[in-house]
Specification:
By secondary structure, the chain is α/β, with parallel strands linked by helices. The protein has two domains: 117 residues, Aspartate Aminotransferase, domain 1 (Alpha-Beta Complex); 231 residues, Aspartate Aminotransferase, domain 2. The strands form four sheets. A seven-stranded mixed β-sheet has the order 2-10-9-8-7-3-4, with helices on both faces. Strands 1-12 form a two-stranded parallel sheet. It has a two-stranded antiparallel sheet with strand order 5-6. Strand 7, helix 7 and strand 8 form a beta-alpha-beta unit. The radius of gyration is 21 Å and the shape is globular.
């Protein structure tokens, strides 16, 4: 049987991580892997998470299952964080999932079950795992232009033109904030125009929000999804706690589905059914920590304060890099770096230039020139700036 298996393509980011580890140079810089790092290169445990874990250690009395949908308190707390004032509990069905990736996968499964003929419209570019999962599931997909490679900004007019071809029942996959891999985001007025278009076409939005709090703040980063949720009759939302709570390895996320109140119970039952088919009960440790933090005023205040430190630190690195490149090049052509938000920006380098950054300067980034801003610090920003200009970007 196993002789029929064929080699699968290597994950390019994991491959890059292996190359970085094998590189003996002392001054090498990792801007490839998509995790937050502080100035020392560590992905720290947040203060509130550590405090919640200590409380949980003292208070937890069982490790039994929670439920197919996860802990209801977690689902309610995370939905409130994402949806804020637009939360309508009579419309909301929600399940805990193994991370944001699990939420995306369950969302695609739900679409395939509810509407096998639906096409999923995906931004070009997007997070590669979106495309990989859709291809594996055999779900039809269509690209829509999102990024202008010349201006390094959202190609909004082209995006809107492309999405006019979406049909009723199709699904439009949107990034809630901090677009991966480009860092270029829709403005709130543009979100409103997207909502207008979706109302006209009858397409269903699915929002992947993996970086809430990393861009312009918790509420500002969720403003687009909240607007969509308040305007459209059916909405899917895949939310991740990996980044904003720093609990990557705990695999904590949720899939939310907004529908007509009369359909909520059936939708909730279907989400629980899908959980049962894929992994039965979702993991609870990370979800319980998130619930404790969001529901405890002291823990929540400390978490939000540290998250804001993280956000402002990444913004400062963006501004520092843009300023250094402006000084060295005498040009403002890298100003987009300060305008982008979140961990990532697409630099606009060719594959050959990215390869030269690696071989000549020990600077590692994904082949499409996505760089992780959080992989930098005050010492390495000037090193990167000089290398960028040295390879002719």
């Amino acid at each position: 049987m196993f002789g029929n298996l064929k080699p699968q393509p290597a994950d390019r980011i994991l491959q890059l991580m292996g190359q970085f580890k094998a590189d003996p140079r002392d001054g090498k810089i990792d801007l490839g892997v998509g995790v937050y790092k502080d100035a020392t290169g560590l992905t720290p445990v947040m203060r509130a998470v550590r405090a919640a874990e200590k409380q949980l250690w003292d208070s937890e009395t069982t490790k039994t299952y929670t439920g197919l949908a996860g802990d209801p308190e977690f689902n309610a707390a995370l939905a409130a964080l994402v949806l804020g004032d637009s939360l309508a509990t009579d419309r909301l069905a929600s399940v805990a999932t193994p991370g944001g990736t699990g939420a995306v996968r369950q969302g695609f499964e739900l679409i395939r079950m509810a509407s096998p003929e639906a096409r999923i419209w995906v931004s070009d570019p997007t997070w590669p795992n979106h495309l990989s999962i859709l291809k594996y599931l055999g779900v039809p997909m269509e690209p829509y232009r999102y990024f202008d490679g010349d201006t390094r900004s959202v190609a909004f007019d082209a995006m809107m033109t492309g999405l006019t071809a979406a049909k009723p029942g199709d699904v439009v996959l949107l990034h809630g904030c901090c677009h991966n891999p480009t860092g270029a985001n829709l403005t709130l007025p543009e979100w409103a125009e997207v909502a207008d278009l979706l109302e006209k076409t009858g397409a269903v939005p699915m929002v992947d929000i993996a970086y809430q709090g990393f861009g312009d703040g918790l509420d500002a980063d969720a403003a687009g999804v909240r607007l969509i949720a308040s305007r459209l009759p059916e909405v899917l939302i895949a939310a991740s706690c990996s980044k904003n709570f720093g609990i990557y390895r705990e695999r904590t996320g949720a899939l939310m589905a907004l529908s007509d109140p009369a359909k909520r119970e059936v939708t909730q039952g279907t989400l629980a059914f899908l959980n049962r088919q894929n992994y039965s009960f979702p993991p609870d440790h990370g979800a319980r920590l998130v619930t404790m933090i969001l529901n405890d005023p002291t823990l929540r205040a400390d978490w939000q304060a540290e998250l804001e430190e993280v956000r402002l630190g990444m913004l400062a690195l963006r501004e520092m890099l843009a300023r250094e490149l402006r000084t060295l090049s005498g040009s403002d052509r890298f100003g987009f770096l300060a305008q982008h938000r979140g961990m990532f920006s697409r630099l606009g380098a060719s594959p050959d230039q990215v390869e030269r950054l690696k071989t000549e300067h020990g600077i590692y980034m994904v082949g499409d020139s996505r760089l992780n801003i959080a992989g930098l610090n005050a010492t390495t920003v000037p090193v990167l700036a000089r290398a960028i200009l040295a390879v002719g970007i």
